[in-house]
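W.,

You were right to be curious about this one. When I first looked at the sequence I had no strong expectations either way, so I just let the prediction run and decided to look at it fresh. Below is the sequence, 313 residues in total, followed by the output.
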Amino acid sequence: MGDEATLAPDIPESESFCGSLTGMLAGLGPDVEVINAGQPGHCPLLNLAWSRSRLIGLQPDLVILCCDVSDVADDRRCRPLAKFSDDGQILTVSNPSASSHDDDFVSAIEREFMLVKLVSDHFGEQLAADSFDDNSAESLDDLNGSSADHPTVLIEQTWEPLAGLRELCRQISAEFVVAVVPSRKTVDSVASTQGVTSMSPGTSEVLRLLGERASLEQIPLLDASTEFAAHENQSRLFLPLSGALSAEGHQLFAHILGNALLERHPSSGAPVAVPVGAEVLDDAPIGTPTKPLPTLDRRRRPRPTTPSFDGSE
């Protein structure tokens, strides 16, 4: 799961890191299937809301959440549109990008006549079996008030849904890991720690807080930025205009991610499914649930050229 960096619309599917993982993970079993569920504008909050209704039907053995620094901005855009239960659980959240292109007649009326939307929301709450709190106003106050002056708060709340995703995966007996999709910003951030001026001084804070959250929730985390920063020709790893991963960048990331997964999951000969996500999942063939992957081993075996997932102590 992830955003457009995972979906990779500018790269042929077979050359994307998701498409390349199928061949790399073939050693785990004869029927490995990787599903690309990247969706433009998604962030962990949107992925959590989406997963509650879609992930269970896939019955995955392993779920990989792909994150990047753009998730902070995406969370800030969609959080005011989220609806939460009384205990703070996410119920629904709209993707601002998708909403702007929604041609649904009722939605169009609501956009034109806010009163209609307020009335429909009010009666919807009256008729709903489970009550929920609309935190839109509160979230807007947060963004326009105190939290806007404290970027750490915005970053921390971006990674809060990781706990919900981990719990959801636990309920369906799926392993859950997080991977940082390398970008020019993350590579620049690594370079800055090595004495090179960084163009993205805030990126290191985003990655640091992501690491802290993953450690707190005991979620394995992989960040391949160091390996990308050490590449002899970084310009070949990213597209010149968009800055997204190039085909060569996807291949390098697939190599790093795939080897880290293989290190954690020795081949057992049993068929497994490794979903990384898909834009359209209704057409994905769902067969008999496969045997879950072994529990992620916290012990690291030395691999000088390939990073392992960062196990939490």
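Here's what jumped out at me. The beta strands are 62-67, 83-84, 90-92, 133-134, 175-180, 221-223. And, maybe more interesting for your project: The chain is about 45% helix and 5% strand.

Coffee later to discuss?

I.
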